[in-house]
Design a protein that fits this description.
Helix content: 55-70%
Order of helices and strands: HHH
Radius of gyration: 15 Å
Strand content: under 5%
Oligomer: single chain
Mean pLDDT: 87
Shape: elongated
Low-confidence stretches: none
């Protein structure tokens, strides 16, 4: 998604493409992990709602896209975790308000 055609890029652009791919993967992994942890805690440690994991992954992808080639990997982890929290609660808040697309 964010790396583009990094296999055809040469020089420093190839490094940027590889960094974009790595940071995107890190952000999505932390986004899914944080969403699943929140879901597990809110469901009394009994089950994980897979819908929440999907929301967290999509929120993380959207949040990391603009700066994926320019941030450090630990920044990508923080961005993924925070964005999953924000996106998860935004979707549930809009559902509570009965606003749908």
């Amino acid at each position: 998604l964010n790396a583009g055609s990094s296999d055809t890029l040469v020089g420093s652009w190839g490094i940027a493409g590889a960094k974009a791919a790595a940071n995107t993967g890190i952000a999505v992994a932390f986004g899914v992990f944080c969403s699943m942890a929140i879901s597990l805690k809110q469901n009394n440690w009994k089950y994980i709602n897979i819908f929440d994991a999907v929301i967290g992954s999509m929120g993380a992808v959207v949040a990391i896209t603009s700066g994926c080639a320019y941030v450090h990997p630990w920044h990508a982890a923080v961005i993924g975790g925070l964005s999953s929290f924000v996106s998860r609660y935004t979707v549930h808040f809009l559902s509570w308000l009965q606003i749908d697309d």
